[in-house]
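User: quick one, sequence for these C-alpha cells?
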C-alpha cells in the first residue's frame, strides 16, 4: 500500500458480529511528528516517545474515550520520563523530561509504565507495570491484563527514515467475554503470522486504517462502531500560565512585578512562548 503523509490521523473501531472481538486500528503519524518536533528530539528518544504517545492514545480509545489519559514511562532508577497526554477531543501531545546530564530516557529493564485516567470528579485512576523486553507494546498488554483485566494484543510502533518520521500508529485486538476457542485460535494465528511485523503494519495503516481493519478481521463479519479524528493539540494558554503563577508565594509575585520586565514562559509540550507583563501579575496578589 502507498503511504500518505498528508492523510489526517484517525482511529477506526469495529466489533465482530459474534461478540468475540473488538478491534481498533489507528494512524498517529502527524500527531507524533508534531510532538517530537516540538520536543526537538531524535534517535531513540523520538522513537520511544512516539510509541508512548501512540500507546496512550490507544488506551484512551479502548478504556476511557471521554476521559483524559496520561501515559508516563519512567526510566530505570527514575531517570527521566516520557509522557503521552491524550484528550477526549482527539488532541494529544508528548513530552520528554531529562535531568541534567542525561541524554536518553531508557526503556530498558527497570523502566515502568504508569497510566493515569482523570475522572470528571477530578479523581485519578492509576495503574503501573514494568516495561518488558518487548517494549511499550508489551507494557500496554501487561497494563490491560493487570489493571483492566482485559486480554488483548496491543501493538504500537513507528518508522523513521533517518531522523524523519515516516509512519506511526498501531492496533489493538481485544478479546471480549463472548469469545470462544475456535475464533480465538484463528485470530491468534493470524496476528502472529501476518501482523507481528509492526513497522510493516504501521506503514500499511498510513494508506487506509479501514483496509487494515478489514484485513485483521478477514472472513469475520463485523460492524464498524467508531471513526475518530486524532490530532496534535496542546491545551496551554495564557490563563493556565497565570494560574500556575498564582500558586507562587505573594513575595515572589511582588518581586516579579518589581522587575518591570515581562516574563517569557515557554510551554514544555508545544514550545509556545507566553509573554506576561508585570501588570498582568497584579491581579494575582489578591489570590496569593
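Assistant:
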Amino acid at each position: 500500500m502507498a503511504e500518505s503523509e498528508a492523510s489526517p490521523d484517525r482511529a477506526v473501531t469495529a466489533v465482530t458480529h459474534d461478540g468475540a472481538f473488538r478491534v481498533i486500528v489507528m494512524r498517529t503519524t502527524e500527531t507524533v511528528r508534531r510532538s517530537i518536533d516540538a520536543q526537538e528530539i531524535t534517535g531513540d528518544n523520538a522513537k520511544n516517545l512516539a510509541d508512548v504517545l501512540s500507546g496512550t492514545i490507544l488506551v484512551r480509545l479502548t478504556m476511557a474515550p471521554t476521559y483524559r489519559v496520561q501515559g508516563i514511562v519512567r526510566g530505570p532508577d527514575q531517570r527521566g520520563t516520557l509522557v503521552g497526554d491524550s484528550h477526549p477531543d482527539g488532541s494529544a501531545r508528548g513530552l520528554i523530561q531529562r535531568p541534567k546530564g542525561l541524554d536518553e530516557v531508557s526503556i530498558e529493564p527497570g523502566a515502568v509504565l504508569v497510566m493515569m485516567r482523570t475522572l470528571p470528579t477530578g479523581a485519578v485512576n492509576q495503574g503501573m507495570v514494568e516495561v518488558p523486553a518487548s517494549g511499550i507494546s508489551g507494557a500496554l498488554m501487561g497494563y490491560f491484563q493487570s489493571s483492566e483485566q482485559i486480554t488483548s494484543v496491543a501493538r504500537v510502533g513507528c518508522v523513521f527514515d533517518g531522523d524523519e518520521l515516516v509512519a506511526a500508529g498501531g492496533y489493538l485486538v481485544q478479546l471480549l467475554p463472548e469469545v470462544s476457542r475456535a475464533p480465538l485460535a484463528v485470530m491468534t494465528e493470524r496476528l502472529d503470522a501476518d501482523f507481528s511485523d509492526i513497522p510493516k503494519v504501521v506503514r500499511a495503516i498510513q494508506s487506509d486504517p479501514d483496509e487494515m481493519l478489514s484485513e485483521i478481521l478477514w472472513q469475520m463479519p463485523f460492524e464498524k462502531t467508531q471513526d475518530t479524528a486524532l490530532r496534535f493539540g496542546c491545551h496551554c494558554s495564557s490563563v493556565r500560565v497565570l494560574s500556575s503563577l498564582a500558586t507562587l508565594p505573594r513575595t515572589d509575585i511582588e518581586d516579579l512585578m518589581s522587575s518591570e520586565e515581562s516574563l517569557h514562559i515557554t510551554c514544555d509540550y508545544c514550545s509556545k512562548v507566553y509573554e506576561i507583563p508585570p501588570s498582568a501579575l497584579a491581579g494575582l496578589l489578591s489570590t496569593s
